[in-house]
Write a structure and sequence with these properties.
Elements (H helix, E strand, L loop, with lengths): L1 E5 L2 E4 L4 E8 L7 E7 L6 E6 L6 E3 L7 E6 L4 E6 L8 E8 L6 E4 L3 E6 L1
Parallel strand pairs: 2-11
Antiparallel strand pairs: 1-3, 3-8, 4-5, 4-9, 5-6, 7-8, 9-10, 9-11
Length: 118
């Protein structure tokens, strides 16, 4: 099982980045995919998930309206489009896979650094 994030980097406030998470080794279609982040000195924070079977997405308030999650099941990839980035979005971003709502996220990527300068 492998989740590999990419697309992180350094961007100025107000800019955009698109993160990708390529999955392998499990039945991608069966899993809810989520994104988390961890800022320096802070605990890991859930920010968004997308459910394939319902097509629904849930965002925390801090990213709602700025971030968009999507998935391409044909490519076993989930994306996070991040617009209007703020310095407080600076963190390591992780994707993760959850077999069903309420269960633990079983699979995790290694993370990709996003740094937003003011």
């Amino acid at each position: 099982v492998q989740l590999v994030e990419s697309g992180g980097g350094l961007v100025q406030a107000g800019g955009s980045l698109r993160l990708s998470c390529a999955a392998s080794g499990f039945t991608f279609d069966d899993y809810i995919m989520g994104w988390f982040r961890q800022a320096p000195g802070k605990e890991q924070e859930f920010i968004v998930r997308i459910n394939w079977s319902t097509g629904s997405a849930y965002y925390v308030d801090s990213v709602k309206g700025r971030f968009t999650i999507s998935r391409d099941n044909a490519k076993n990839t989930v994306y996070l489009q991040m617009n209007s980035l703020k310095p407080e979005d600076t963190a390591v971003y992780y994707c993760a896979a959850q077999i069903s709502a309420g269960r633990e996220y079983a699979y995790w990527g290694q993370g990709t650094q996003v740094t937003v300068s003011s």
